[in-house]
Amino acid sequence: MLSPAVASQLAELVAQARADGLAVDGEGGLLQQLTKIVLESSLEGEMDAHLGYGRHDRAGMNSGNSRNGKRSKTVLTEAGPVQIEVPRDRDASFEPQIVRKRQRRLNGMDGIVLSLSAKGLTTGEISAHLAEVYGASVSKDTISAITDRVLEGMADWQSRPLDPVYPVVFIDAIRVKIRDGQVANRPIYLALGVTVNGERDILGLWAGEHGDGEGAKYWMRILTEIKNRGVADVLMLVCDGLKGLPDAVNAVWPATVVQTCIVHLIRASFRYASRTDWAQMAKGLKPVYTAPTEAAALDRFAEFSGTWEHKYPAIIRLWTDAWAEFVPFLAFDIEIRKVICTTNAIESINARLRRAVNARGHFPTEQAALKCLYMALMSLDPTGRGHAKWVVRWKAALNAFDIHFDGRLSAGRI
C-alpha cells in the first residue's frame, strides 16, 4: 500500500497533468512519471523492511547498517524506459525484489515480447515494434533470450502426465518451412485429446521429416510416449490417412478404433477431379458417408463408382484404400458421427497456428518452429470464453460413447 505522502504526490501529478495538458503516454508522459513514483516508493518500502526502520528514524542509530545513497538505473516498462533511483545500504546486503539487481525489464515487458512472438513476429519485427510504440531499444539477442525462457516450460508441458482415458484423440499436421541446409516443408504433428468431461487437452507437438517419411516405427514412438505419460486407453483416434499410424495404434492400444477424417477424404477426392465436376461428385458422395449402415454405404459407393470410375479411377482407388478407416463411424449413432467424422475440432487450432507460421515465413531450426507453435498454443483463448461451448458440444456424444464402448469411458472418470 502506498504511503499518504506518495498518494498525495500521485494526486498532485495527476492534477498537474490535467492542468498542463500533459500527454498520458510517450516520453516524459504521465504514465512514465507515475511508474517512476510507484517503483521508487516500493523500493524505499523494501529498504525500510530490510533495515527494520524507516528513513530518519532514530531507531536506526548504531544499528550496524544504514542507507548509503542511491544509484540511477533505467528499466524498460510497459510505459517505456523509466529512470529510477534505487536505494543502497552500507553493507550491500539489500536485495530488492520489485526491481531486482541487474534487472533491466519489468515482467510485463517480457509478457509483451512473448505475446508478439506467439503471433509470429520475428525478433527484428518485435524490436522495431518496441522502439516504435514504447520508445525502447531492445536488441534482437535480448528478445531471443526472453523467448528462449519458454523452452523449459515447453519441455515440462510436452512430458506432463496425461489422463488415463480419452474418448477421442485427433491427430493432424501443419506444414512449416524450416531451413535445414535449404528451406523445406516439414510437418509438425499436433495431437488433441477430448477428456471424459468433454474438455480440450492438447497432448503435444512432434516434428516430422520432409515428405512422407513417417511410418509405423515413427508413430509407434509417438504413441508409446503418450501411453508412457499415463494414457491407458483411447476409444477412437481420428486422423487424415497418415501412413503407418493405424498399425502403430493397434500395437499400442489394441481396442482403439481408427477413423479417417471424412472432410479430408472428400477434399483429397476433389484434387483428382475437374472443378466443373465437384458439385456433382459431392452430391454422389454424400449418400456414401451418411448411409445408415456399412452395407448401405457399399451399395451407394458402387453407384458412385459406376458413374465416375471411367473418368476418375484414382478417386475410386482412394476411397477403396481408405475404406477400412472410413467405415467405423457408420456403426455409431448420429451424436457420435457429428464429432468424429471430421477433424474440425483440431482445424480451429491449426488455423491459429498457421497465422503464426505464415507471419514468420520460415524458421532457422526445428526448435525455433516448435517454440513458435508452442507459444501460439499457450495464447489460445486466454479468456476461457470458448471453453463452455466446447464442453456443451461434446456432452451428447460422450453419453453415446459410454454406451457404445461398454463403460470404458466411465472407467476413466473413476
Automatic annotation (TrEMBL):
GO BP field: DNA transposition
A molecular function (GO) term: transposase activity
Entry-linked PROSITE patterns: TRANSPOSASE_MUTATOR (PS01007)
Domain of life according to the entry: Bacteria
Keywords associated with the record: DNA recombination, DNA-binding, Transposable element, Transposition
InterPro entries reported in the protein's UniProt record: Transposase_mutator
Protein purpose: Required for the transposition of the insertion element.
Family the UniProt entry places it in: Belongs to the transposase mutator family.
Protein name, as recorded: Mutator family transposase
The organism of origin for this protein: Actinomadura syzygii
